[in-house]
Amino acid sequence: MRKALRRAETNECYWDRRWEEAGSDAAAFTDLSIYPVKYAQMVMTDAEDRALELGCGLGRVVKHYHRQNWNIAGIERSAVAVERMRQDDPGLDVSVGDATDLPLKDGEIDVLMAFGLYHNIEHELDEALAESARVIADGGRFCITMRPDNVEMRLNERYWKWHNRHRTGPLHFHKWLVREGEFIALLKKHGLTVTSVYHARNMSILYRVPWLRDRRTSDSPESVRRAAGYRLNHVGRTIDGWLMRHRPQDFCNVVVFIGTKDRP
Fold it and tell me: Which residues on adjacent β-strands are paired with residue 175?
């Protein structure tokens, strides 16, 4: 695994700022083919299952399934994000929590989802995965994502190094970048067996180029752009489509790991 560093701010401050600036997430996805709901659907197969999203951010996945009366809860590190979700919908089962110390019984959860959580944990990643495995029922399902150590993400870090070139101060941990095999082995260490791997996008690096963005959403609030999947225009989609068809492992910016917890 490789650390990505940023000079601007700590990981915790970055996410508090992001959630403060982002506004409220939409109550539901309108396009079920985009990340992360596309992959959530692969494990959310029974509305009676007890589902948990760790690192739920502003709650777009939790809100989507809560609106359909699924049995889902969310735990998020950022108090800023949790307060915003509670203001949006007091009926949401969301709380501030630590991924290394979950307030749940052994095997209490049938489905665990974590979109963009574990790559933000610098020092206790192994402990967080062990705790996640503890609360999943034997045979239960998981959908976990990580940031890949590939061409796309290295270009992304070069972009941010240039973007922050005038800032001073110490470098801070921002996220882990991983190789698929090493993370599959880490999950297996905790009794979590990966059955499928997907190379996905939540935002193409081409979205950094303003003239490749879809003008219909490019000036919208971030919550709208996120819900729409950070849309590119025709030229951007053509280039991005070619990259993802021919070199998905190099140009995805999210790797999705789906699997089950081993039975004794």
Answer: 4
Q: How far is CA 69 from CA 46, 48, 50, 176, in A?
A: 11, 9, 12, 34
Q: Do 40 and 49 touch, CB atoms closer than 8 A?
A: no
State both tokens at 27: 């109550």
| Counts of helices then strands in the chain (DSSP H, E) | 10, 9
**What 8-state DSSP symbol labels residue 259?**
E
Maximal CA-CA distance, the chain = 54
Q: Mapped to the 3 state alphabet, what secondary structure does 22-73 carry? A: HCCCCCCCCCCCCCCHHHHHHHCCCCCCCEEEECCCCCHHHHHHHCCCCCEE
DSSP secondary structure string for all residues of 94-108: EEE-BTTB-S--TT-
The two tokens of residue 242 are: 């070619």
In a 3-state reduction of DSSP, which class is residue 172?
A: strand
- pLDDT tens, position by position, 24-83: 888 888 889 999 999 999 999 999 999 999 999 999 999 999 999 999 999 999 999 999
pTM of the predicted protein model? 0.92
Instruction: Return phi, psi of residue 46, to 5°.
Output: -145, 115
Query: Is beta strand 192-200 parallel, antiparallel or unpaired with respect to 254-261?
Result: antiparallel
